[in-house]
Write a structure and sequence with these properties.
The chain has three helices and two strands, in the order ααββα. By secondary structure, it is mainly α. It has a two-stranded antiparallel ribbon. β1 and β2 form a beta hairpin. The longest helix has 18 residues.
Length: 108
């Protein structure tokens, strides 16, 4: 989003918040409570149904497991995404085939 659109959207949201009497603190509290509620989720399916792992297992999860799916499939776990490893630079200065037809071959 470019800067002008962003500023316009912020102005619009501020206006609407003022219109409805919503303070930035109210918004921050609502967002914080929402994220706390989501932290309780441990399992979620594709339609958004979730379960925190406490109490009786919900019907959607029972059905999926009886159909052959594993409970781990639905588990929400923050798995760190591995950082891409930088490719090693190749030193072609000592390549014995440099400049030969073999080096120019297009076969892969």
């Amino acid at each position: 989003m470019d800067e002008r659109k962003r500023d316009s959207m912020i102005a619009y949201l501020r206006h609407r918040m003022e219109e409805f009497g919503i303070k930035p603190e109210d918004l921050a509290a609502a967002l914080a409570s929402e994220s706390m509620a989501k932290k309780g989720e441990r399992y979620r399916n594709a339609t958004g149904d979730s379960w925190d792992g406490n109490g009786e297992m919900p019907q959607w999860l029972k059905q999926a497991i009886s159909a052959g799916q594993t409970i781990e499939h639905f588990e929400l776990s923050p798995k760190p995404v591995p950082a891409p490893q930088p490719k090693k630079a190749v030193d072609w200065s000592n390549d014995p085939f440099a400049g030969t037809p073999l080096a120019r071959s297009n076969s892969r």
